[in-house]
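2024-03-11 09:14:02 INFO queue: dequeued item Geranylgeranyl transferase type-2 subunit alpha, len=328
2024-03-11 09:14:02 INFO validating residues
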Amino acid sequence: MALRRNPKSYGAWYHRKWVLSQGLLEVDFDREFYLLDQLLKVDAQLSWMELPFVAKMKDVSEVEELKFTMDMIDSNFSNYSAWHNRRTLWFFPFNRVNASEDHTLKSSKWNLETISYEIDLFKELEENCKFVKLTLARLFLAQDAMMSYKTCSLIHSRDVLRLFDDLIRLDPMHAGYYEDERSIVVVNQVTSDEQSLMSQNSHSSNYFSSKLPLNGCIQLTNLSLTRIGSVDRLLWVQVLDLSHNKLHSLAGIEALQLLTCLNLRNNQINSLTALEPLKLLSFLRVLDLSFNKIGAHPVDTTKVSMPFSFVTLHFGAKNVLKIILRPT
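2024-03-11 09:14:37 INFO prediction written
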């Protein structure tokens, strides 16, 4: 009765889902899909929350659900909820192939052709649509990942970075997410091959020992990084210069177990809590945190217990903090 009076009653639909999930009554799935079809005409957004639930209960295949989704897109090209559901379902065939078949040349060619078709399709959509730009960026990354077994070069890196820059401008509420994703692409780009890595070798900092081998030093400065990505490619690094970025977290850096010197000068680290991963770096001897924002946060109750003694600790008028560490 509630749905007859108000088909957009979210509470009634959620209660209906709960009743169906209990399995107390035999479900007429044909009727359920009929009701969903009626709901689509009233509220397309809510129906896409219901569809996966009913499809899963009836064991509808992803191929059938994808066909239904495409029919909805054909009837309303601007139905972004349908596009979102299509994106979720579209990757299922790839997952199934990878789980059951070898990575043969034939299947790789089919995957690349399909990705290329999707890229061409999304290029034709509205230029300033956030959803289109984000999906296009992910498709470019997927295409590069599929081609990486042939070549280490990331063909679409510039396009992806441009798309994330556009998203940061168009969608400032989610700028943090886009900046993090952009950072991963940047680090991937500069660590993608030996030539790129060699260009990042550095002995520029005066506290980085000149006795260390050249191939143990990496400089990733002035890249606007907000997070550290691709750490699996940096496991051999002993000296890492991350100065002049936008880092506010060090999550992931604990994987660099050979690290002895770390330059975090001119970043946006604002609390001792962010330094927690450094406790796991047993070989770390030199750390520069100058010109960060430690102390700017009004409350930071975390006490970082590290296996080092502070040789130099100075707060200046501009909130300058420089720490030189040595074993206790």
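2024-03-11 09:14:37 INFO annotate: The first helix runs from residue 2 to 5.
2024-03-11 09:14:38 INFO item closed
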